[in-house]
Structure formats: structure tokens, C-alpha cells
Amino acid sequence: MIQPPTAIRKRVVLHFPGFEGLDAAKHRERFARSMVKTAKLWDFSATTSALNGDAVQPFFDVDSQGDGWQTDSRVHIFDHSEIVDRLNNRPLVLRLLRGFAAAAQVVAEGGATAYFRHAWRFGLFFIFPFLVVAAALLVSLALITYPFWLGLAPWHTLIGLVLAYVFFLRFFVPWAERSHMLHLFSDWELAVAVARLDESYVTDWLARSMAAAKLALAETADEYVISSHSMGSSMAAHVLGRLLEEEPDLLAGKKVVFATLGGATLQCAFLKSAGLLRQRVGAIARVREVFWLDVQCLTDIINFYKARVVALCGHEDAPAAHIALIRIKHMLTSERYAKIRRDFLRVHRQYVLDSDCRSPFDFGLMVAGPLPACTFAGYTGEGPLPKA
Predict the structure, then answer these.
(1) Distance between alpha carbon 93 and the CA centroid of its chain, in Å?
(2) How far apart are CA 240 and CA 232, in angstroms?
């Protein structure tokens, strides 16, 4: 019988969330709720502290203990909710124009072609919101111009304007907000900005995050987990990669796990202008202290399933990320899975939420449990948790 590894006593976590309008306090609240279920599922107790630190470096502590082990984890949150709010709270016309411009840039820079070549479902995810909004705009245009193509009197144009107004602004836009269509417009605008690094709101956030990450990595711990979800994976790669560029020995002597959960690093890295991002992916992969864990799922369309991120960024000679393939339907009850399976954004968030069943991957267990994070590369979800 294979004995479980020795339990982690002290862990430092640097978590980079995805493109969500949640600040650090809300991420902490969601984690605390999930942690209650996670602890019950895995038969241990856990206490999540209040949010501490400041606006630049917010963190909370999780004290977990089970049969023969105790683990203290400090979780630093590197959210970019200020950027999400900045992009989503602009006038509708500007959001539409900038969103379509971002889509055109993705196509022009070869991103769309690469998406369909390496993960065709991600390619569909890319074009879907733009096709839906474009169709709604065409319907609105048809309502405005119907007097001309039906040969009606010009005064019918007023009726057409009213119909177009009601359809687009009173019906479609509220539906698009609820369905996150316009949210995805902003997501793609940020993806282009992260690839190009030509927007001050991105470069300023990266500079602040680098300073906070350096302080977090200076704390004493058995293990350092740099976890990221979705868009956060590109942000994390920029932060860690640039830190390593400036201080190549920053991680010397440390055990570091770079965990990309439903990682969409290639969303940005496939753009021709993302040379620095691709360079930083290679820098991370070549650091021997870093164990790169890439958690992927077939039924999540917003990730690059079975894609070799490091090689696709042009570093075939660098160590590849360790891929952990999961099945979200095996993490949840059939009832819960049935409720979310058609909501692709909700499925995509499951990486960082609580599970109903023991399975090979559990975010709360990885962040606050006794298992070394690298063991999730081949974890089965069975057997006892390690002892100290």
C-alpha cells in the first residue's frame, strides 16, 4: 500500500481569480462558504478568518485540522475586480465598440485561428457572444428600415425606431447582461490588453501585484501555491514571470506549485502581440523549484483541453506542465450537475467551488488541506489524508 505524503504544516497561497466582478472580500466569503462543505466532505475541521491586510495585499487565514495533522494556510487574493468594474460600467455604445474592436484584433493577430486549431470549443466560445450581439443589431436595423424594403410611407420609420428601441434596449440588452454576453465583450477587451500590455490599467495592476507577490513569497512556509483561474492564469504568469526576470533566484529553496485551474493562458498567449507573456510562460516552466499543475476538464469549453501550454507558447524544450484531467460531473451530485451543465460560465467556475463528492481534485482541499498541491497531478481522491 502506497503511504500518503507527509502533511503540509504551513502553506502560503497566492490566488489569482478569473474575470469576475468579485473583490477580495467577496472571494473570501465564497471560499469560506465552500470550505464548510469541503471540510465536512473530507472529514476535518476548518476555520476561515476575516479578511486582513490592505487593499493592495488582502489575505485571510485558514486553520484546518484532522486525524493526526494540522495545516495553516494564508491565502492572498490578487483579484482584478477594479478592472472588471472599469470595463463593465462604461456606456453601452463604448462597450460594444471596444468589444467588437477586440474581437477584430484577436482575429487579426491569429488568435481565432489558433483557438479552432487547438481547442475548437474555445473557438466557439470566442465567436459566440459577438455573433449573438451582431444578430441582435441586424434585427434592430431591419426593424428601423422595414418601411424601405416593404415600400411603406416614410412615417413608418418612426414605428420602426420605436420597435428597434424596445427590442434592443428593453429586451435584448437586459437579457444579454443576465446571460453575460456583454461581460464577455469586456473579457475579450482585457484579453487583448493583457496580451499587448498597452493599457495603463493593466500595467499598473501588474506592478502593484508584483510588489504584493514578492512580499507573500518572502513569508516562511512548507509550500507556496500560486493558483489561478481562467483569465487569472495570464495575470499570474505575467506577475510571476516578471518577478523571475528581475530576480532569477527568487524561488530558490522553496517548494512552489503553479496551479492553473481551467487555465486560459493561451487565450492571450496565442495573440501575436503576446510575446512577453509567452516568454514568461517559458521562464516559469524552466524554474526547477516550480511544479506546474494544469487542471483541465473536457466539459468546460473555456479551457484548452489536453493542450500543452508550455510547448504551444514556443518552449518545446522546457518541462511541460503536469496535466490533471477532471470530470466535473463526478464532483457533483447528479441533481446539482443537471442544474449547471448548460451554463458554461457556471461550469467554468466549478474549479474554485466546493464539491459534493470526493474526487481527484478539490480546490479547498488543495488550498487548505494537508496534501501537497503537487499530489493532485495524480490524486485519486481515495485513501486517508496524510499525517504530520
Answers:
(1) 27
(2) 12
Give the global pTM.
Answer: 0.94
pLDDT score at 88: 96
Burial class (CB in 10 A: 0-12, 13-18, 19+), 221: buried
Question: How many other CB atoms sit within 10 Å of the CB of residue 166?
Answer: 13
Spatial separation of the C-alpha atoms in residues 347 and 75, rounded to whole Å: 23
Summarize the confidence of residues 326-334 as an average pLDDT.
93
Q: HEC states along the chain?
A: CCCCCCCCCEEEEEEECCCCCCCHHHHHHHHHHHHHHHHHHCCCEEEECCCECCCCCCEEEEEEEECCEEEEEEEEECCCHHHHHHHHCCCHHHHHHHHHHHHHHHHHCCHHHHHHHHCHHHHHHHHHHHHHHHHHHHHHHHHHHHHHHHCCCCCHHHHHHHHHHHHHHHHHHHHHHHCCHHHHHHHHHHHHHHHHCCCHHHHHHHHHHHHHHHHHHCCCCCEEEEEEECCHHHHHHHHHHHHHHHCCCCCCCCCEEEEEECCCHHHHHCCCCCHHHHHHHHHHHCCCCEEEEEEEECCCCCCCCCCCHHHHCCCCCCCCCEEEEECHHHCCCHHHHHHHCCCHHHHHHHHHCCCCCCCCCCHHHHHHCCCCHHHHHCCCCCCCCCCC
∠223-55-212 over CA atoms, to 5°? Answer: 40
* Identity of the amino acid at 35: M
pLDDT tens readout for residues 72-129: 999 999 999 999 999 999 999 999 999 999 999 999 999 999 999 999 999 999 999 9
In the predicted model, what is the mean pLDDT of the chain? Answer: 94
User: Which grid coordinates are listed for 152?
Assistant: 411603406
Give the number of residues written for the chain.
388
What type of residue sits at position 88? N
**Residues with Cβ within 8 Å of residue 143, at least 6 apart in sequence:** 160, 163, 164, 167
Minimum mean pLDDT range among 47-51, 189-193, 261-265: 261-265
Residues 251-278: tens digit of each pLDDT: 999 999 999 999 789 999 999 999 999 9
